[in-house]
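Standup notes
- DV: blocked on the single-chain target, sequence here:
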Amino acid sequence: MNKEKDKHLGLRIDSETHDKLKELAEYEGRSINGEVLYLVRQAIRKYEAENK
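- DV (later): unblocked, structure below
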């Protein structure tokens, strides 16, 4: 991953989703940001595997 200049992404989510994401992140031992990055990367890997 190119660390030259990380990008910022604002994300608006409802309270219920935020609470569930926080619980999932804590269970996985990650921050909420770390969990979101993990899930996005998983989705990208899946997409690339299915569309190459």
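- Follow-up: The first helix runs from residue 15 to 28.
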